[in-house]
Amino acid sequence: MNFFRQWGQWMMAGAKAHALWEIETSRTILGDRRRLWLLGAFLLPAVLGGIVFADEIAGALPAVLGGKSAYSPAYYSTGIFIVSILIGVGAGLITGCIGAGGGFIIAPALMSAGIKGILAVGTDLFHIFAKAIMGSVIHRKLGNVSVPLAVVFLIGAIIGATVGGVVNRVLYEINPVLSDAFITTIYSLILGFLGTYAMLDYLKARRMGAGVPAKGSKTEGAEMGSLPKRLQAMRVPPMVRFDHDLVPGGREISWVFLVLSGALVGMAAGIMGVGGGFLTFPIFVYMLGVSSMTTVGTDIFQIVFTAGYAAISQYAIYGFIFYTLAMGMLLGSLIGIQIGAMVTKVVPGVTIRGFYAMSVLAGFVNRLFALPGKLAAMEVIPLSKSAAATLDTIGIYAFFIVIGGFGVWVIGTFFKNIGVLRGREGV
Question: Is residue 283 left, alpha or beta, with left meaning phi > 0 and alpha meaning psi from -120 to 50?
């Protein structure tokens, strides 16, 4: 039970750290006219290519750039663009309102909308990369980035992202259903674990009273636990030094642990398409003993390069990115994050935690109910097509009812309290 609680706390801390990056990135983009022009430059080709001239452009593109022979559809219609905006709004509302990673729902939402898993992963990575480039605040965080730490970590991240991308593509070449089943299984495990912990944490918070922090939720990282101390005591050269400004004499850790950590984060990004940021924070702070200040800066650094490398080298050049969809999600998430962040000012924190747990569990149920149909299609388990379709439909309805209900509640709360929010903004 202690092991479950500890890993749950670590994953929640990672999800929250990644959400903070998303919120800051969104504000940076929307608060700068030049970045808004850049957003328009990204959106216009995607909208024109995906909606107005879809058939003509897709037919002319070579397979390696996402033409019809690479994967269909790499283009689409007005309908799918609107759906992508709504998915982005939903993810943004969760990120902004709850302060934890709404990106966990993107791949399940895309797959529920009929997008193949490998295309959902590639598209999500490209969406994260585009957001990171347009909202990059690395120059503001340079004081908190340990360059040696980041560089060695990125060596592992690139290796891991390559492995993750290759695994997804090989499985897709063997059998597209096998690829979907693999991605669905990974999401089921992650969302099931995180959702269960989040719900237990919410129930505990209700018993203790709103606003009471969970035990062990400290994230500064200035005081190391036993695991970081043991890892830093293993002197396998070369040693990488960091946190000179925060700890007298700084700290050191072997490059081996950084490369392994980077490989794990990169593999998660390559397989799940979530950028890997939700893992960087707990690994750095709770396992390697890096201060949270240095971790935040390094996380921003790694997201840009890990997501960019994985999106371009492992998915884009093979035609596994749905550009129209990515740009719609980007636009929707920017809107959703801002609305969600404002709603937190008028909603009790314990209520927000409950909605987060429900959202993650809805994603878990969605992927869990989709899995039997995929296993049956590969003849791994005996299940009729009608039974598989029924389970899949239940999972889809459960998912979109919860996420849609959450979205309606947040937006309704926003408009209901818009006068109060305007008054607070004006103070």
Answer: alpha
State the SS3 of 200-253.
HHHHHHHHHCCCCCCCCCCCCCCCCCHHHHHHHHCCCCCEEEECCCCCCCCEEE
User: Minimal CA–CA distance to 85: which of 109, 68, 104, 116?
Assistant: 109
CA distances from 198 to 1, 2, 366 (A): 14, 15, 17
Q: Residue with structure tokens 């505990």?
A: 204
DSSP string, 276-333: THHHHHHIIIIII---HHHHHHHHHHHHHHHHHHIIIIIIGGGT---HHHHHHHHHHH
Mean pLDDT by 10 residues, the chain (427 residues): 67 71 76 75 60 48 43 55 84 74 77 84 86 64 71 92 92 89 90 83 72 42 69 85 75 90 90 74 81 74 84 86 82 84 72 78 90 89 90 90 86 80 57
With a CB cutoff of 8 Å and minimum separation 6, the contacts of 177 are 374, 377, 378
- Compute φ and ψ for 9, nearest 5 degrees: -65, -40
Domain ranges of the chain: 2-426
Full-prediction pTM beyond 0.85? Answer: no
